[in-house]
Task: inverse folding
């Protein structure tokens, strides 16, 4: 992967005639500018550019693809929610491409996406290392302790979500995340928490809303009998055998 990224960087450099100002204002262009920064202290290496690209590709693509897979599964099973989401989409966009104003008003879909992220958080834990001994409630965490903060367990804790914790109930989020979690941010931490919270959170939500809207505008879908439910943890929690649905053109 490193070599293909370096190839793309070289291509961009050639197209820009080596002029830093022509590298572009997209993410790659900004990284390439940082690689040519006049101030040596601010300059990043080509390997760091490649690592950032890999990081963004992985952090952005796999996670959002997984979110879409699980949401499509849930909507294929819960066709009543699929229909509610479709009515909302058709009301806001008709057969037009989703626009940014309408995307911000997709309340039903927002609830569905949150519930999908709660049941199947693509990232199932946050990992941290204790930098210096710290007291946390009744615990003293020694220096260098590795912490695994189990998102999946929090999302499936009946004490936080009630006895119906394992059911798909988007209505939990009808009055927003704060209400659904009783103002406990750790109860729903799909995108992490605090200063290292996912930088792509809004991007991912918007991307998912656009993809789902375009699907709902064109098709109804039901679950194929070929589907085998087998969530598996391979960096993300994925459907091991894919999600097979039967599409019916509208
Ligand atoms: C459903 C989609 C996504 C999920 C569930 C997700 C989840 C997460 C989580 C849990 C973290 C925090 C990791 C930690 O604290 O240890 C994180 C960080 C990050 N995410 Fe996402 N993410 C998603 C989409 C995206 C997208 C679309 C992008 C980029 C466009 C992105 C870029 C990043 C980056 C760069 C970080 C590291 C931020 C930092 O350390 O300051 N993510 N993501």
Result:
């Amino acid at each position: 992967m490193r070599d293909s990224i370096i190839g793309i960087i070289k291509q961009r450099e050639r197209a820009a005639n080596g002029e830093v100002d022509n590298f572009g204002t997209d993410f790659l262009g900004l990284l390439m500018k940082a690689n040519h920064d006049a101030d040596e202290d601010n300059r990043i290496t080509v390997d760091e550019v490649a690592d950032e690209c890999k990081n963004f590709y992985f952090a952005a693509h796999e996670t959002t693809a997984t979110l879409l897979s699980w949401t499509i599964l849930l909507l294929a099973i819960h066709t009543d929610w699929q229909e509610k989401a479709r009515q909302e989409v058709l009301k806001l966009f008709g057969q037009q491409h989703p626009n940014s104003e309408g995307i911000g008003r997709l309340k039903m879909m927002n609830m569905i996406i949150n519930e999908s992220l709660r049941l199947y958080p693509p990232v199932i834990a946050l990992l941290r290392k204790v930098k210096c001994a710290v007291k946390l409630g009744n615990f003293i965490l020694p220096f260098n302790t590795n912490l695994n903060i189990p998102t999946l367990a929090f999302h499936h804790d009946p004490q936080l979500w009630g006895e119906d914790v394992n059911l798909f109930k988007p209505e939990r989020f009808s009055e927003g995340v704060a209400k659904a979690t009783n103002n406990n941010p750790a109860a729903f931490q799909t995108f992490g928490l605090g200063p290292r919270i996912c930088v792509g959170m809004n991007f991912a939500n918007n991307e998912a809303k656009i993809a789902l809207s375009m699907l709902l505008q064109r098709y109804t879908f039901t679950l194929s009998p070929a589907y085998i439910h087998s969530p598996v943890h391979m960096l993300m929690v994925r459907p091991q055998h894919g999600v097979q649905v039967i599409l019916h053109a509208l």
Q: What stands out?
A: The radius of gyration is 21 Å.
